[in-house]
Sequence to fold (296 residues):
Amino acid sequence: MKTPQKIFKTLLITSLILAPIMKVSAKEARIFLSSGSGVFTAGKDMTTRLIVNSGGGAGINAAEAIIKFDPKFLKVKSINKKPSIFTLWTKEPKFSNTAGTIEFGGGNPAKFKDTAGQIFAITFTSLKSGKTEFTIATGTAQILTADGYAENIFKEKYQSFMTFGNSSAVRAAQIFSKKMSGKILLQIQKNGEAWYVYPVDNRRYFLGRPEDAFNLMRKLGLGVNHAYITNYKTFPTKMLGKILIDVEDKGRAYYIYPVDKKAYYLGRPHDAFRIMREKGLGIKNSDLDKIDDWAI
Fold:
């Protein structure tokens, strides 16, 4: 059996073999919980996924962190490593309901370059009503580039809130999420981060960098023929807030803005990002936290 040290050495050697002659500009990467915010029913089990974002650039092949939670509010029942983007573990995922921690260290000789790779799934039991927080313990997080330099590109302080309440509170949050369906939300009390509320599931998806926003919109887009897009000056209610992909015209993407019901061409990543921010609606953290967040 390989020890953690041998596994880590394997990852570094693989990274060096694949290293380019010129260093690829490093990006910022994140570790976060999918469905790490929202309003949920107290006293019930829920499953969320721990996700890593590669940050673009050369890609990543290793990460580690300690996630902190309040054991007065939550109890971890299990961690499921299947599926996972990691195939090797320098530190087996484990949890402590006494300390309120989840920790791991994992990697893969292959590069991961996408926006949302599952590390593992976590099943919690909520113990009481109220609002609780998830954070990453200071100084514990690393996301290493797969370019031969093993640079730590984890830059963002992670913080997420879950609210547990009765059925009335959950229903109120669901009504609010539906009201925000199809909108771009700008987090005015943080750094203006942008989120897209997908009309199909009324969950919010983080738009991140221009490339992330562009790729996400295409993943969530609905394919239609060219005539459907050109025949409408204003679109029907069922299409409001959706992303339409013209399957007969090079897969061009259009955002159907719910306010004026018109189609806006998303173009290149920076064009798409600009339109998203121009059409965005400012929202307070307390309202944003009512909407379940997700990642694909």
In short: Helices lie at 4-17, 167-179, 210-219, 226-230, 269-278, 285-288.
